[in-house]
Amino acid sequence: xxxxxxxxxxxxxxxxRTPRQLFPSLCRFASTSGTPETKLLPSAAGTSAYLLxxxxxxxxxxxxxxxxxxxxHAGLPMHNNATKGGVDNKALSPPIILATTYERPPDGNYxxxxxxxxxxxxxxxxxxEDVMGELxxxxxSQHGHEMSGKSxxxxxxxxxxxxxxxxxxxxxxxxxxxxxQDVYHGVPTQxxxxxxxxxxxxxxxxxxxxxELRHIITQEVxxxxxKEGSLIVWMETPSNPLCQVTNIQMVCDIVNEVRSSxxxxxxxxxxxVDSTWAPPCITQPLLLGADAVLHxxxxxxxxxxxxxxxxxxxxxxxxxxxxxSERLEAVQSSVGxxxxxxxxxxxxxxxxxxxxxxxxxxxxxxxxxxxxxxHKDVVKCHYPGLKSxxxxxxxxxxxxxxxxxxxxxDSGNDSIxxxxxxxxxxxxxxxxxxxxxxxxxxxxxxxLGGTETLIEHRASIEPPERRTSPPGLLRVSVGLExxxxxxxxxxxxxxVASKVCLNKEV
Length: 506
Hints:
14 helices, 35% helix, alpha/beta, 7-stranded mixed beta sheet
């Protein structure tokens, strides 16, 4: 049988490349037929717009971006920089680099930005340090700093306490710290148990008394008698656990005043702010004159109760901050109490939602503080957002609370951020323990800044010889729960505790 012939169609793939493929930059206005068009191809339009925006943005400072935008993009460049040798297809979550060592170039010379060993530097840690340095100095031009747009150097440590110890070690001995009368008990505990044997001294002072503080600092300078030494003026604001607020700018002005009048240039005075309770979206101490700011990243920066990390950012605006940066870098590298890559990555992840978490926590805390202040079984409530707080006016100016606390009722106002921590006092230690025992939604645990609300009886965990918390005080770290549920839990706990204590008295 003879079959009819079939028509065979063969399609040949062109062996040539189009002019647009060969010369894309010269053919942005060419159509596929080769005839000129006034309409851009979509791909060419995208590239042209990208390049044009780059030229327009050359004069635009990243420093002008809002805090919420910087936080939302923590760990990412603001654009891909593909036209400058970058990558078009960059990951939108930074990688975790776990490597401890890096290959050496064949000529034996490491590049300026090359990594050698993770104790000295790690890509993930460096990314977090760069982000924190930028957050602490963002919008510096609004504060009148000539070097606006300049990020602070930043150093990540394995814990907040490691950060504190490293900061102290960066100073020349003999070293003395002036610490607030109300301060996280871990600070004096470290000074007494670990650093006192190495000649590090400390003294508790009233940071709200300008004249007294100026006198004490001046006397320390006079006692130096032209010799080397260091005085660290340690601020913690709001304080733990009484929520006292230190006027950062006022204290820094006093430090600068004494420092400028001193004739002993070998004796250095450093102003440091532990701003753990007020992360950068609430307070930026470097813009208020501090030489360094410290955070326990375990708390608000990480924000999920799964990070152990500390951060120190020396100021790029002060001579003392620049001096401290060099010393701190050496201590970080040589002592090696560095943050792990995983902890750094988790903190970067937490930073992306920091502003949203903190805004909700602040509003809920303010409402709870109002409820507690009015409750019959509460002796006193400590919260900077309350008008009854002795430093309310300072907090309003310093903690992005620019209006009366009554504006907190407006959930759309994100400028009222008095912090997510409060403490309140009841009549006795037994009553306080009963309240903590009766809560159900709120969790009994130490630490703070996580998504869950925590309550803690502070006096019972502080060293007896250095106990500063009143016996009836409970500290509360407010989380992300519905504030109505939280108040219902606290109100019920107060009622139960009152009945329990009453029966015991009978």
